[in-house]
TrEMBL record:
<dbReference type="GO" id="GO:0048029">
    <property type="term" value="F:monosaccharide binding"/>
</dbReference>
<comment type="pathway">
    <text>Carbohydrate biosynthesis; gluconeogenesis.</text>
</comment>
<dbReference type="GO" id="GO:0097367">
    <property type="term" value="F:carbohydrate derivative binding"/>
</dbReference>
<dbReference type="InterPro" id="IPR035482">
    <property type="entry name" value="SIS_PGI_2"/>
</dbReference>
<dbReference type="GO" id="GO:0004347">
    <property type="term" value="F:glucose-6-phosphate isomerase activity"/>
</dbReference>
<dbReference type="GO" id="GO:0051156">
    <property type="term" value="P:glucose 6-phosphate metabolic process"/>
</dbReference>
<comment type="function">
    <text>Catalyzes the reversible isomerization of glucose-6-phosphate to fructose-6-phosphate.</text>
</comment>
<dbReference type="GO" id="GO:0006094">
    <property type="term" value="P:gluconeogenesis"/>
</dbReference>
<comment type="similarity">
    <text>Belongs to the GPI family.</text>
</comment>
<dbReference type="GO" id="GO:0006096">
    <property type="term" value="P:glycolytic process"/>
</dbReference>
<feature type="active site">
    <location>
        <position position="422"/>
    </location>
</feature>
<dbReference type="InterPro" id="IPR001672">
    <property type="entry name" value="G6P_Isomerase"/>
</dbReference>
<dbReference type="InterPro" id="IPR035476">
    <property type="entry name" value="SIS_PGI_1"/>
</dbReference>
<keyword id="KW-0413">Isomerase</keyword>
<keyword id="KW-0312">Gluconeogenesis</keyword>
<feature type="active site" description="Proton donor">
    <location>
        <position position="287"/>
    </location>
</feature>
<comment type="pathway">
    <text>Carbohydrate degradation; glycolysis; D-glyceraldehyde 3-phosphate and glycerone phosphate from D-glucose: step 2/4.</text>
</comment>
């Protein structure tokens, strides 16, 4: 199971102050368990891992199999919580170079509907011209413009290219049970569809079909992912004593750091495969806590890559940051540094060592340097990169986020601020129903 070490924050904040959060954390946990806190109609994620049935998992796997048998490429169309969870897991578990290999054991997964790049869509549709492709259209509201736009284009191409009958087989919708354009289309076209439960918000939906179907299509074991999440549900449960509950300690520590003036949390990894876990985490914490003019700003870096770009700022810039390092204990493969007789590069001192040993010393050296430079550090350990551990990590962050948002005093389950840009965009595009807003915005230009 995940372990959290906060020792290297304690030169900046005291253990007593962190432990003083115990009653507040209890209150937050009770509010989550009993559904008495803000946003209590969005708590479906809390006991999701333990309530997923095997039958549901088999249904997802059977649908994944249809896509796997009939597609070389599957497009996951979605934005925010409707794609980041799947991408986080798939990229964490995939071979970094599979996409370049000709022989594949699973369809290539490509993402769309998460931007409005015309060149992106041009290049994507051209790439797909000679491919047997399918689409998973994911949108909880069923009305998100970015996703709907991409899906409109991909649906037409799929039907034109593969025929209406095959398109019906290889297009799957994951959306609301009754509302939204994605639901209307799915029902009318007879697509296989999955429901995103009303009480699970987008950024907490990775363990619904939103995440599980693309992950299963990519060839990963969703039973193990869910098993990992179940472990975390137990280990981070409200009945686990504060001192032994990593989610409780994480939530308390980051809130205490925030109070002490550390306004930015940087999630750090030393493994390029975790890049999208950080992207997922940024949405989870950013949308949950950034409101009422408060909230830690969630940032992320990939080390050691970014030590050569952001490292300077982190070491010596404004002292308003703290870091949470995700440390992966074991690699899945072994590469030894070869010995070289000429030793022109002077690296023989590393000969015979694992590359991961070098990485681990980079990690330790960085942590010590950053603490010396005034950056509190937390260290979150997972055993390896596998379905089980990623499942643990995702659920750990979710439950810690619920607790942390309540400690901060906000509703962690809404995102009212996201509407502002949409309203302006629709007004600027003269969307029917936005006539007043259109007039108002035109007068500002
Ligand atoms: O799943 P959808 O309804 O298409 O929403 C996709 C995303 O966009 C919205 O604007 C919200 O900010 C996100 O929380 C959500 O995950």
């Amino acid at each position: 199971m995940i372990s959290l070490n906060i020792e290297k924050t304690l030169g900046f904040i005291s253990r007593e102050k962190v432990f003083a959060y115990e009653p507040l954390v209890k209150e937050a946990q009770n509010a989550l368990e009993k559904g008495t806190g803000k946003g209590n109609d969005f708590l479906g994620w809390l006991h999701l891992p333990s309530s997923i049935t095997q039958e549901h998992l088999e249904d997802i796997k059977a649908t994944a199999q249809v896509l796997r048998e009939n597609c070389e490429v599957v497009i996951v169309a979605g934005i925010g919580g409707s794609y980041l969870g799947a991408r986080a897991v798939i990229e964490a578990l995939s071979n970094s170079f599979t996409w370049l290999q000709d022989k594949k054991s699973a369809p290539s997964i490509i993402y769309a509907g998460h931007n409005i790049g015309e060149d992106y869509l041009y290049e994507l549709t051209h790439f797909l011209q000679d491919k047997k492709f399918g689409v998973i259209n994911i949108s909880k509201s069923g009305t998100t413009t970015e996703t709907a736009l991409a899906f409109r284009i991909l649906k037409k191409q799929c039907e034109d290219q593969r025929g209406k009958e095959m398109a019906q087989k290889v297009i799957v919708a994951i959306t609301d049970a009754s509302k939204g354009a994605a639901r209307v289309t799915a029902d009318k076209e007879g697509y296989k569809s999955f429901i995103i439960p009303d009480n699970v918000g987008g950024r907490f939906s990775v363990l619904t079909p939103v995440g599980l179907l693309p992950i299963a299509v990519a060839g990963f074991n969703i039973d193990k992912l869910v098993a990992g999440a179940r472990e975390a549900e137990k280990a981070c449960g409200a009945d686990v004593p504060f001192a032994e509950n990593p989610a409780a300690i994480y939530a308390a520590t980051r809130n205490e750091l925030y109070k002490s003036g550390k306004k930015i949390e940087i999630l750090v990894n030393f493994n390029p495969k975790l890049h999208y876990v950080s992207e997922w985490w940024k949405q989870l914490y950013g949308e949950s806590e950034g409101k009422e003019n408060k909230g830690i700003f969630p940032a992320a870096v990939d080390f050691s890559t970014d030590l050569h770009s952001m490292g300077q700022w982190i070491q010596e810039g404004e002292r308003t940051i703290f870091e949470t390092v995700i440390s992966v204990e074991k690699t899945n493969h072994t590469v030894l540094v070869p010995s070289d007789e000429a030793n022109l590069d002077g690296l023989n001192f590393l000969a015979g060592k694992r590359v991961d040993e070098v990485n681990k010393m980079a990690e330790l050296g960085t942590q010590l340097a950053h603490v010396d430079g005034g950056v509190p550090n937390m260290r979150l350990c997972i055993a390896d990169l596998s379905e089980q551990t990623i499942g643990e990590l995702l659920y750990f962050f979710e439950v810690a986020c619920g607790i942390s948002g309540y400690l901060l005093g906000v509703n962690p389950f809404n995102q009212p601020g996201v509407e502002a840009y949409k309203k302006n965009m629709f007004a600027l595009l003269n969307k029917p129903g936005y006539e007043e807003e259109s007039k108002a915005i035109q007068s500002r230009l």
